[in-house]
Design a protein that fits this description.
The strands form two sheets. A six-stranded mixed β-sheet has the order 6-7-8-3-9-10, with helices on both faces. It has a four-stranded antiparallel β-sheet with strand order 2-1-4-5, with helices on one face. By secondary structure, it is an alpha/beta fold. It is globular and about 50 Å long. Helix 2 packs across helix 3, helix 2 runs parallel beside helix 4 and helix 3 packs across helix 4.
């Protein structure tokens, strides 16, 4: 992994105005993410994980501080970023192949790069094959299971060849076995990508974070509380790594943050972190 900053977040704060009241969602966030890193953001519901990701997407603008990608402040969405949500966000009237090909064609158009619709379909077909959807290319989303639809969404994001992949609890609505399969698939695709993508992945699942991440960003309401190195050797696959001493030690550390340090901090400041 190249130790080169790609995302730099400095003194980031974000507030909303609602019914004459100011709601502070993020406060003094500082984080540098390096090229090719896999970052997982964890924390309890409502702590600001998805809000932070939305700033990286360009959907929200910081009230103060800055967010830079490759040294330039972000203003709105950009073709160097692709997003995978928990909801699959597929066009229901398009087949799996058409959903991916359309995204490839439009992304290249925004980059100012000429690509034929035939070439976009070829790229789409290849990525659907990579997510193991051979034979389902011409199915509509409504004809696919939830796990299959999320495979299409991952294929669509990866096929657009973004530099940065932003993922907001993409496997949260899936059952345990499908979730495990997609986690392993995502790791395989990330590891085998020639231009290894920088991934920022929001999850509330500690096991998922431990499996995927190079570093785990632990959030409490509005703040980053800790950034933890995940030194488990790669490649990683369930269920094998769960039996290792290192895995169990890191899990206990994360649980301690969840139930002890977080409660103590909130109590010490009267719940106004």
């Amino acid at each position: 992994m190249v130790n080169e900053p790609v995302i730099e977040i400095k003194n980031l704060s974000l507030s909303y105005e609602s019914e004459n009241t100011t709601y502070e969602a993020l406060k003094d966030i500082n984080l540098t993410i390096h090229r090719g890193e896999f970052i997982c953001i964890v924390g309890s519901s409502g702590c600001g994980k998805s809000t932070l990701l939305s700033v990286l997407e360009g959907l929200h603008t910081a009230t103060s501080g800055s967010v830079k990608i490759n040294g330039k402040e972000i203003h709105g969405a950009g073709v160097e970023r692709a997003v995978v949500f928990q909801s699959y966000s597929l066009f229901p009237w398009m087949t799996a192949l058409e959903n991916v090909a359309f995204a490839v064609y439009e992304t290249n158009k925004k980059r100012g790069e000429k690509i034929s619709k035939k070439k976009a379909s070829e790229i789409a077909f290849n990525f659907l094959k990579r997510v193991e959807l051979n034979g389902f290319e011409n199915k509509l989303p409504g004809e696919l299971s939830g796990g299959m639809q999320q495979r299409v969404a991952i294929a669509r994001a990866m096929a657009c060849d973004p530099e940065i992949l932003l993922m907001d609890e993409p496997f949260g609505a899936l059952d345990a076995k499908i979730r495990e399969n997609l986690q392993n698939l995502l790791l395989k695709m990330w590891r085998e990508d020639e231009k290894k993508k920088t991934v920022v992945f929001v999850t509330h699942d500690l096991n998922e974070a431990e499996l995927l991440a190079d570093r785990i960003v632990f959030m409490i309401p509005k703040h980053i509380y800790a950034v933890i190195e995940d030194t488990l050797p790669r490649p990683r696959n369930y269920p094998y790594i769960q039996e290792s001493k290192e895995y169990k030690e890191l899990y206990q550390k994360l649980v301690k943050y969840f139930y002890n340090e977080t409660s103590e901090l909130i109590d010490s400041e009267g719940g106004n972190l």
